[in-house]
Amino acid sequence: MRERERVSSQMATVCPVASLHQEANPSRLKVGSVKTLAESSNLTSIPSHYAFTTSASGDQAVHSDHDDSIPVIDFSLLSSSNPDQRRKVVSDLAKACQDWGFFMVINHGVPESQMKAMGDMLTGFFDLTEEEKREFEGKHVLDGIRWGTSFNASVDKVFFWRDYLKVRVHPKFYCPSKPEGFSEVLAEYAGAVRKLARGLLKGISESLGLEPGYIDEAMNMDSSLQILTANLYPPCPQPELAMGMPPHSDHGLLTILMQNGIGGLQVHHGGKWVKIDPIPNAFLVNTGDHLEIMSNGKYKSVLHRAVVNNKDTRISIVLSNGPSPDTVVTPAEQLVDGESNRAKYIGMKYKDFLELQQSSVLDGKSVLERVHLS
Ligand code: OGA
Ligand code: NI
């Protein structure tokens, strides 16, 4: 079986969601947040609309092997004046993108104080009352601010044990007006992470044999679409039946994630689900669908999922760094040659791809499949 088919048939056993573009169910009851549900007294079991028939427990995750653990990239070496050190980190990036599609980044230049301030702001945001948060409930996928639950509550058949806040932060900056001071903290943090993303993309360009500035220019990164997703996973009385986030790949070029020290993220690697333990103050970075498209499949986006637990509230703060919304992303010309290495993807405007994904049921890499040619 081809890798893609193998992976998606595996996914079917994990996440029995229906096909893309189900009709929204107008008679669906409005669901409240998982936070409110989890805090309601005497919750000993989950409501049936949160229960997956085949759960994560039927598909046990493992810890990574000692000799194949998640790669660690020292970002500071990319600006080293020592050419050997630079060459080494570029080759580490190539290996990380090819073998894992996920890596930890240390010495990333984002101050700890900014990371902590972001964590505090998001905790503060999710602690607002349901009524206050409802003010930020988005209606459309292109709304700048969207607080919600599950993935796409109007089409999801089974709900995910997750509340979220999604905010577009670049090229146009949005931010909820609460809690106080959020917008200064978010603007600063997002700027620092964007700088990190562009720095990593330089190294990644080089690792593909392209000019260091190639991706930055071709993807119009001055107008990069950057979206914050903060995920709240409250304790769940039956974590083995629920799912925080189903297997999916990320749509952008690079996703940069921090979390509150509680694990839950699992990465599909070497045919298994591998648990990723948080490293304090490091970022977790993964390659997205549009890096797969621009690299003509050399660097594939990787499936990952989030499971929940019955003890601790987990918060993850995720920044997706993508091309500018109007960029039509195609494989880099230099990576394609006539017969032996044809373009494997058709070009699509980044914002059109996004709209397709956000209006669908989250289902593995199904949106990327639509632009994949072979
Ligand atoms: C995401 C994501 C994982 C997590 O937001 O795209 O994969 O651990 N989150 O919350
Ligand atoms: Ni993701």
UniProtKB/TrEMBL annotation:
Gene3D superfamilies associated with the record: B-lactam Antibiotic, Isopenicillin N Synthase, Chain
Fe2OG dioxygenase domain mapped to chain residues: 223-323
InterPro entries: DIOX_N (IPR026992), IPNS-like_FE2OG_OXY (IPR044861), IPNS-like_sf (IPR027443), Oxoglu/Fe-dep_dioxygenase_dom (IPR005123), Plant_2OG-oxidoreductases (IPR050295)
Superkingdom field: Eukaryota
Pfam (any one): 2OG-FeII_Oxy
A single MF term (Gene Ontology): metal ion binding
Keywords carried by this UniProt record: Iron, Metal-binding, Oxidoreductase
PANTHER family: OXOGLUTARATE/IRON-DEPENDENT DIOXYGENASE
Family designation: Belongs to the iron/ascorbate-dependent oxidoreductase family.
Name of the protein: Fe2OG dioxygenase domain-containing protein
Species the sequence originates in: Eucalyptus grandis
